[in-house]
Amino acid sequence: MKTFLAKKETVQPKWYLIDAAGVPLGRLAVKAANIIRGRHKATYTPTVDTGDYVIVINAAKVALTGKKEEQNEYMFFSGFVGGESRRKVSLMRERHPEFIIEHAVKGMLPKNRIAAKMLTKLRVFGGETHTHEANNPVKVTV
């Protein structure tokens, strides 16, 4: 029996919905990254983007264990001398709750050219509503 390799033309992506309210960030990010990569399918091929779309709602209510809310920081660098800035998770949760999940999922994707394309399949919303009702997403429990 020959090994099956998926083709880009034959992939039929689906849409999945994940509710982040009260779910630990790491568990949520692993689940989302595996769906985006296509690891949950029998037709998974590492060199082809076989993944599905993921919609994450309630990003502002994602759970962080321990003291990560006060201790963890996100570092940004402008490229200029003295252009480094750091922001705590609590501040990012107030201003951009989507960034926390996007950053975690991005870290769990492979570091190659396909990862940038895979990351476009992640849609994160801070509240309970989203704009992709027409795609009939399947609800996934984490």
Report on this structure:
This protein has 142 residues and is an alpha/beta fold. The protein has a domain at 13-65 and 97-140: Ribosomal Protein L13p, Chain: A. The protein has helices spanning 25-37, 68-71, 89-95, 97-107, 113-119; strands spanning 15-19, 53-57, 73-77, 84-88, 122-124, 138-140. The strands form 2 sheets. A 4-stranded parallel sheet has the order 5-2-1-6, covered by helices on one side. Helix 1 crosses helix 4 (97-107) and helix 3 crosses helix 4. The radius of gyration is 17 Å and the shape is globular. The model has no long low-confidence stretch (mean pLDDT 95). This is Large ribosomal subunit protein uL13. Keywords: Ribonucleoprotein, Ribosomal protein. It comes from Opitutus terrae (strain DSM 11246 / JCM 15787 / PB90-1). This protein is one of the early assembly proteins of the 50S ribosomal subunit, although it is not seen to bind rRNA by itself. It is important during the early stages of 50S assembly.
Structural class based on helices, strands and sheet pairing: alpha/beta
**What is the CATH architecture descriptor of the domain at 13-65 and 97-140?**
Alpha-Beta Complex
CATH superfamily of the domain at 13-65 and 97-140: Ribosomal protein L13
CATH class of the domain at 13-65 and 97-140: Alpha Beta
Strand content: 15-25%
Overall mean pLDDT stands at: 95
Q: Which bin fits the share of residues in helices?
A: 25-40%
CATH topology of the domain at 13-65 and 97-140: Ribosomal Protein L13p, Chain: A
Distance between the termini: 35 Å
Order of strands across the biggest sheet?
A: 5-2-1-6
Report the uncertain regions: none
- Count of DSSP strands: 6
SSE string, helices as H and strands as E: EHEHEEHHHEE
Tell me about the biggest sheet? Answer: 4 strands, parallel
